[in-house]
Specification:
The complex is a heterodimer of chains A (355) and B (271).
Chain A lengths: L1 H8 L5 H5 L14 H33 L3 H34 L2 H7 L4 H12 L6 H13 L4 H14 L1 H10 L4 H25 L18 H33 L2 H9 L1 H15 L6 H7 L5 H13 L2 H11 L1 H26 L1
Chain B lengths: L2 H19 L14 H23 L2 H12 L7 H11 L20 H10 L6 H7 L18 H4 L6 E2 L2 H10 L10 E9 L5 E7 L8 E8 L10 E8 L13 E9 L9
Helix pairs in contact in B: 1-2, 1-5
The chains are: A mainly alpha (355), B alpha/beta (271).
Chain lengths: 355, 271
């Protein structure tokens, strides 16, 4: 009871809390009559969905005749297309990462990462290449690695490398850029080098008090199957929601922005790279799907597309929000600009060499 | 978003993916045919996960979890926010039960693709996209030229009609320096896009993955008949209007059609 009271008086502070809106007023911490309240809330939810399905059926019957606006339909097609081509990657990426969460203990990661920070950074970078999972999963994993006394710089390198160069991302990139293996290689090289360089910079200049370390919790008892299910649900809800945001924005850009305008920007060598880097930050597309969006930006140079795929997984609005939630704003204010700068340098170098 | 809502959202999302692939071919309007099996599998997994979550919730599993959390480590759970942060941070750990009862509001957006499928059922891209993107801007990339052509024209025997994809025709027209298409009878299928000057184009959209990356391939058709309506499907038979001078200097390749036939049952709209 006392905990429950303190819940209501705790002021909200971090953005991470506000994006996780509704966490604090959910069923988990209901008032004293909570059995009743929960079940009525459940019934309400079921009714809400029944209403939604009825509305969709009615909308379908009514709208198919009414809706003939070509621009809107083209937008809807592109949106649906992006959402559904990303869905298999999202589902299998999330399933694989949930399997690792449930069946590989965190201590196994620690065993493979050296104690010396400068040497741990490249190891963490390479292990990012082995572990599938998008940025939504890697932020909390990095937090728990830091708590387990892995050097913060190494954990941060892992945080950046895992969504940038993991196998699911690489396969997605190879599928999207069919017949252009140099793009896959460039993405791997640029993503890995950016992560490792950022890690080393953090070893040299980073300060421990910039990181707000999460408090340690430990709860025994849940079965592996349940952990698997829960982490999959968690990932798909978080990553999926932001994926839809990305699909909405990308479809809007695709249909609304005049090609001639994009073409003017696309021709400028350096500006086009910066434009796609900014686009990657704004769109916040899951790294398992961003290659498909990058390949659709057909007017841009390969280096600009590379920038889109290198910057996207390491800095974007969604990540900034999540990192602020886990590590605090003092950290993000330093870390995000660092990632952007190093990511761009790596993009230009690797893009110049390989593309 | 409570857990019932999450589970039901997943069920609907999976149902949308399955509806677009199993009883219908709607997915061909949006993604390449190769995505079909993956969409079916992803849809099935999503429905299954959603059902499991709803069933677990109805059995009252999450009610067990919450007190369990607090009794096992009460000193750390002085507030729900700290608790959430801790759980979120701990997520990824192998040996604990975590209780992600909530999902961020942004997860509701997962219902948008569901609504798109069930309410709008977006059609394949068509003449609007061709007009708004201004059609093909010039010759296609030259990377495929070196290895010779492996297209319908190469397969068709001499004197046979070659049933070419519009994409193959465009590629040949701009890059085949041997001009092997000259004088050959060719058949093309696509949808019609009339322009303001009274001519019309036969168009196919080519996609690498999904409709977001669709590229326009079009051929100007020259024939005696009236200009067809936009988005009607046609098969035209005729010959390539071989240009004089450099192939790459041509702004629009033309097709001299001897006959045309309306296609009643259009194929996969993309090629």
């Amino acid at each position: 009871m006392s905990e429950r009271l303190s819940d209501e008086t705790t002021p909200g502070s971090a953005l991470g809390d506000s994006i996780a809106q509704g966490w604090s007023d959910r069923d988990e911490l209901p008032p004293a009559d909570w059995g009743r309240s929960t079940s009525s809330r459940r019934t309400g939810t079921v009714w809400l969905f029944a209403l939604l399905i009825t509305a969709m059926a009615a909308g379908h019957a009514w709208l198919t005749d009414e809706l003939t606006d070509q621009a809107f339909l083209a937008w809807a097609t592109v949106f649906t297309a992006i959402a559904f081509q990303a869905l298999p990657f999202l589902v299998f990426g999330v399933a694989l990462s949930a399997a690792l969460t449930a069946f590989v203990p965190a201590s196994a990661y620690r065993r493979f990462i050296p104690q010396n920070a400068a040497r741990a950074v490249p190891v963490a970078g390479v292990s990012g290449a082995l572990l599938p999972g998008c940025e939504c999963a890697s932020v909390p994993i990095a937090g728990s690695l830091i708590k387990r006394e892995v050097a913060p710089a190494a954990a941060l390198t892992f945080l950046l490398a895992a969504p940038s160069i993991n196998p699911v991302v690489m396969i997605a990139t190879a599928v999207a850029f069919a017949g252009q293996p140099e793009m896959v290689l460039a993405r791997f090289a640029a993503g890995l080098s950016a992560s490792v360089v950022i890690g080393w910079i953090w070893v040299r200049f980073g300060r421990a008090d910039w990181l707000r370390l999460p408090t340690r919790t430990h709860t025994p008892g849940a079965s592996r199957g349940r952990i698997f299910r829960e982490s999959m649900l968690h990932d798909i809800m978080h990553a999926g929601g932001y994926l839809v945001v990305g699909a909405l924005a990308a479809a809007t850009l695709n249909v609304m922005v005049p090609r001639s305008w994009l073409l003017t920007v696309a021709d400028a060598p350096v500006v086009s790279v910066l434009v796609l880097a900014v686009l990657a930050i704004l769109l916040s597309i899951c790294s398992e799907a961003d290659a498909f969006v990058a390949v659709s930006l057909t007017d841009f140079s390969p280096t600009a597309k590379l920038a889109f795929m290198v910057i996207g997984p390491i800095v974007d609005l969604k990540l900034i929000a999540m990192q602020a939630g886990v590590f605090g704003w003092r950290f993000v204010a330093r870390f995000a600009p660092l990632c952007l700068a190093v990511g761009l340098v790596c993009t230009f170098l690797i893009g110049g060499l390989l593309l | 978003m409570n857990r019932i809502a999450q589970g039901l959202t997943l069920v609907l999302l999976g149902a949308a993916a399955l509806t677009a692939t199993v009883p219908t071919d709607l997915y061909l309007n949006w993604v390449k045919a190769g995505f079909g099996p993956f969409l079916i599998a992803a849809g099935a997994v999503t429905v299954l996960l959603g059902v499991l979550v709803v069933v677990a919730e109805l059995r009252g599993e999450s009610q067990d979890t919450a007190p369990e959390h607090r009794t096992s480590a009460p000193e750390h759970h002085t507030s729900a926010r700290d608790h959430d942060r801790a759980v979120a941070a701990e997520y990824g750990d192998g040996g604990h039960g975590h209780d992600h009862s909530g999902a961020p509001g942004v997860a509701w957006l997962l219902l948008l693709p569901v609504a798109a499928v069930f309410v709008l059922t977006p059609p394949a891209l068509g003449s609007y996209t061709v007009e708004s993107t201004g059609g093909s801007a010039g010759p296609p990339p030259e990377e495929t030229v070196s290895g010779g052509f492996e297209d319908a024209l190469a397969e068709a025997g001499p004197g046979e009609t070659a049933q070419m994809a519009v994409q193959e025709f465009v590629m040949r027209a701009w890059t085949d320096e041997d001009r092997q298409m000259a004088g050959r009878e060719i058949e093309l299928t696509g949808f019609a896009v009339p322009d303001e000057e009274g001519s019309w184009y036969l168009v196919r959209l080519q996609m690498a993955c999904c409709a977001a990356d669709a590229v326009v391939n079009r051929v100007e058709v020259v024939d005696d008949g009236p200009v067809p309506e936009a988005d009607t499907w046609w098969t035209v038979r005729g010959t390539w209007d071989e240009p004089e001078g450099e192939l790459t200097d041509v702004s629009e390749h033309r097709f001299l059609a001897q006959e045309r036939e309306e296609v009643a049952d259009p194929p996969d709209p993309y090629e």
